[in-house]
Design brief:
Low-confidence stretches: 176-198
CATH topology: Jelly Rolls
Radius of gyration: 19 Å
Order of helices and strands: EEEEHEEEEEEHEE
Number of domains: 1
Distance between the termini: 14 Å
Helix content: under 10%
Strand content: 35-45%
Length: about 200
């Protein structure tokens, strides 16, 4: 038997392209992001009757990629490697963990479902980390991080009901693969867990 991958009903799944710009001013020789929340743009209101699936993430800054990597402050206790979170307004995480960003990436493919508990909530981003003012950054009064994600808004009530009725199987260890079987799997790329439903 072979495993099957759960497919998103694209005919009833509106793609939302959400972005956020997180700017830190230069203070005492460093640019620091403290985890403050910023609303994603556009400000799409989430609906509790829909299921949302984060499909990809992109991260960059207004710096040359090599200058960004060279400026990371590994001694910053709160986050030695800059990271960002995707949240719902009020602080409820959309992704299970913060996304580490030691370098830029574009269209990191993932598949992470979430269901809002209330209508009217919105996606937010937060970032945590510190960049030092290296020689390449002298004269730069601030640094902006740019985060974006593609989220599918699934409105097919029958598909959502079937999807939510599934019982999650035990999580796989990082990097492990499940033997062939009849379970349906939503696959997510590292550093995210795979969610397996049977």
């Amino acid at each position: 038997m072979s495993a099957s991958v759960v497919s998103i009903p694209y005919s009833q799944a509106r793609p939302l392209i959400l972005a956020g710009r997180l700017t830190a001013p230069l203070v005492a020789g460093a640019y620091t992001w403290d985890g403050s929340y910023f609303d994603a743009s556009p400000g799409v209101e989430l609906r509790s009757s829909f299921l949302y699936i984060v499909a990809s993430l992109t991260f960059a800054a207004d710096l040359d990629p090599a200058d960004y990597s060279a400026a990371i402050d590994p001694t910053y206790a709160a986050s030695p490697i800059p990271s960002f979170r995707v949240l719902q307004r009020g602080g409820a995480s959309v992704l299970a963990d913060a996304v580490p960003a030691p370098a830029y990436f574009s269209d990191l493919g993932i598949c992470y479902p979430f269901a809002p508990k209330v209508d009217g909530n919105r996606i937010q981003f937060s970032a945590q980390g510190r960049l030092l003012q290296t020689p390449a950054l002298i004269g730069k009064p601030s640094v902006s991080l740019a985060v974006s994600c593609v989220v599918y808004e699934v409105s097919d009530a029958n598909w959502i009901r079937k999807f939510m009725a599934r019982t999650p199987a035990p999580a796989l260890p990082q990097g492990a693969k499940r033997a062939e079987g009849t379970r349906e799997t939503i696959i997510m790329d590292a550093p995210f867990r795979s969610e397996v439903f049977g």
